[in-house]
Amino acid sequence: AFDLVLARSGKQFRVEPGETILEVLRRDGMNLEWSCCDGVCGTCEQVVLEGVPDHRDAVLSPEERQANSHMMICVSRALTPSLTLDL
Ligand code: FES
Questions:
Q1: What is the ipTM of this complex?
Q2: Candidates 32, 38, 55, 70: which one to mutate for ligand 1, based on the most atoms within 8 Å of Cβ?
Q3: What stretch or stretches form a coiled coil here (predicted)?
Q4: Is 56 in the pocket of ligand 1 (CB under 6 A)?
Q5: Is 71 in the pocket of ligand 1 (CB under 6 A)?
Q6: Measured from the CB, is residue 74 less than 6 Å from ligand 1?
Q7: CB–CB of 51/84 below 8 Å?
Q8: Each residue's pLDDT tens digit in the chain (87 positions)?
């Protein structure tokens, strides 16, 4: 599990092992774009401000992964205890 912080709203969430960032945010009522929920379409891409994502998608190139600046929130998780998104 890891903590998720939304920079613009200041909201904080806990993402447990069996759930995704996208699920947690949709449950809170956020109107986010998504499509495949499988890490292949790129629709759910979000900007990462702090923390290191655990990239599990098939969209980003190796260079984009290393940049730690974007992530697919339908499948990717966190390598750091906390992630901050530009939401
Ligand atoms: Fe398709 Fe996340 S919804 S990559």
A1: 0.99
A2: 38
A3: none
A4: no
A5: no
A6: yes
A7: yes
A8: 999 999 999 999 999 999 999 999 999 999 999 999 999 999 999 999 999 999 999 999 999 999 999 999 999 999 999 999 999
